[in-house]
Prior knowledge:
By secondary structure, the protein is mainly β. It contains five helices and 34 strands.
Amino acid sequence: MKKYALILFALIISISVSGQYKPWTSPEQPLREINTLKKQIVKPDFRKKDYFVTDFGAIGDGKTKNTEAFKKAIEKCSAEGGGRVIVPKGVFLTGAIYLKSNVNLHVSEGATILFSQDSNDYPIVFTRWEGMECMNYSSLIYAYEEENIAVTGKGTLDGNSDNDHWWFWCGAKKYGWNESRPGRQNPARAKLHEYMAQKKDPRERIFGDGYYLRPNFVQPYKSKNFYMADVLVKNSPMWNLNPVLCENVLIERIKVISHGPNNDGFDPESCKNVWIKDSYFDTGDDCIAIKSGRDEDGRGIGKPAENHIIENCEMKDGHGGVVIGSEIAGGAKNIYAIGNVMDSKNLDRALRIKTSSSRGGIIENVFFYNTKVGAYKEAAVRFNMHYEKPGNFIPTIRNVWVENMVVEKGGKYAILSDAYESSPVTDFTMINAKINGVEIPYKVDFLRNVTLKNVTVNGQPLTDLKK
């Protein structure tokens, strides 16, 4: 009975949105959509006034804690109409930084903002942790319902995390945890899952000291017009760049080098109109992972990831190059990855869509274009509807277009798919793909409306995907 109920649910969802769904029939359609979207995503303008943190008492000796100096400079800048808060050359130790409207935090070349390893320097704020809402440590740089905010400059943001600070809280021995250490996130993570399932008020899901849920690095929350450019981001406690429920996000020319646990590079969550370009990722987890909330929280808020461009980025180490999921219960649509380069013996997949029936949601209109891949381990394209425990919310994946992909040395598969019979991956197109060095051309189930044109695997034409 449960199987038939799931099939019926999937059919109802399909019928309810069928009037809106139209798969692409040529690459010109998504390319036009990209050009239109680029005109809508613009960086914020700032008043031409500079505020040096050193004028507010900051000392760049790497030892003096400058939390108050940053706070005073940012508050004064915002109160007077905005401008740049400048961090000059030096190493400036600080706790959490709160960005206020119309402030551009400018980290000069030769400057480092070094974040404190003391959890007491991170106040409890409203946040998302692995796609679940709660009260927890502030991200290292945080904003809530602010507008026109930025982090720019050729300096460095150093999260100051290692196996003795923050990372071991994940509970893995490879990151420094052992039985003699008090910190481990597992019980609190399980409790947060319980609170979410019970639909407990997120502001009553209070964590912080004693719970060991690591903060993310940069998290503007419910904010508009967020810009980030040129900085080096390294050694994050957890996810690196994590805008949540934001609109108009532009990221360019940044470098993320961070190899701790769950150190995703860029995780836009439930955001609309996002453009990241000309950036570099060398990370301990997915390079770019697009999200929209986990399970009850993601479905309850119902805000999809929408209108994202990933352009001319380089992905080195990382589990996935461009990933959609797994916290994707709010759905995702209109995701365009163009002109990206990936190459690493530690890269598992180039394009991965991962979800489960505990998530649900519709993932549609994914355009993966002009991609060069050196090496990967598992699959060039990976669909997975069984990523975590099953539930009663069958996901939908449809209209995925992959064109002009070249792989020099592939891994086990070219294409790998694990879907539901009641909800097959629908309208998958692959054109002009040359995938070499693969052990097995494909392993798939439950694909519908597949188009393959000029696709070769190990020099042999691939014309069909049969289970």
